[in-house]
Specification:
The complex is a heterodimer of chains A (115) and B (116). Chain A contains no helices and eleven strands. Chain A is mainly β and 115 residues long. In chain A, strands 2, 4, 5, 9, 10 and 11 form a six-stranded mixed sheet that branches. In chain A, strands 1-3-8-7-6 form a five-stranded antiparallel sheet, with no helix packed on it. Classes of the chains: A mainly beta (115), B mainly beta (116).
């Protein structure tokens, strides 16, 4: 019930394309959905996050679309650049009895943007 | 640099040895998390501190693992009697508990452990 499923596992697009990464969750108690970007040998970096009371959020070239009824959310990267080549993780969290908001991560999508 | 820092960045140890990692969170952050990431997978939660109190532990955290945050600032993660299955990237993240902030966790660069 804690699982977050992410697809695709890998994605290759041309420069300027719009890669879309999808995630689905089961636990309706999740109420915070961030996306992280990770380069090899580095820790994950927070990109953008959304709460389920909104259906879309944009920050720069990154957009999250959220479908509460379907329990799905996705990341769109507009005008993708070779520098966007990285692994992207979706995640979800909920309040817990110990006050932690541990993140449950998807399995990651390796994005390659060709020049 | 005011981000989360972790030391060492890499650690190679022999099976059966003990290792200790350190995490220095962002200075005003009172919440600190440890995660473990294996190759090709997303990070998995290990444990959580609010100030100096360890409030949650994952079932992944066997009794060979111990974490401390003695003064509510830096934290250490110790693994005793390391096993090859402990080889992974150990990530630390911190966040600030405050009204209206939904737990934006900021990660350090990680410590990569290799057990030979």
């Amino acid at each position: 019930q804690q699982q977050v499923k992410q697809s695709p596992q890998s994605l290759i697009v041309q420069k300027g394309g719009i890669p879309i990464i999808n995630c689905a969750y089961e636990n309706t108690a999740f109420d915070y959905f961030p996306w992280y970007q990770q380069f090899p040998g580095k820790g994950p970096a927070l990109l953008i996050a959304i709460r389920p009371d909104v259906s879309e959020k944009k920050e720069g070239r990154f957009t999250i679309s959220f479908n509460k009824s379907a329990k799905q959310f996705s990341l769109h990267i507009m005008d993708s650049q070779p520098g966007d080549s990285a692994t992207y993780f979706c995640a979800a969290s909920k309040a817990s009895s110990g006050s932690a908001r541990q993140l449950t991560f998807g399995s990651g999508t390796q994005l390659t943007v060709l020049p | 640099d005011t981000g989360v820092s972790q030391n060492p960045r890499h650690k190679i140890t022999k099976r059966g040895q003990n290792v200790t990692f350190r995490c220095d969170p962002i200075s005003e952050h009172n919440r600190l998390y440890w995660y473990r990431q294996t190759l090709g997978q997303g990070p998995e939660f290990l444990t959580y501190f609010q100030n100096e109190a360890q409030l949650e532990k994952s079932r992944l955290l066997s009794d060979r693992f111990s974490a401390e945050r003695p003064k509510g600032s830096f934290s250490t993660l110790e693994i005793q009697r390391t096993e090859q299955g402990d080889s992974a990237m150990y990530l630390c993240a911190s966040s600030f508990r405050g009204t209206g902030i939904m737990n934006e966790q900021y990660f350090g660069p990680g410590t990569r452990l290799t057990v030979t």
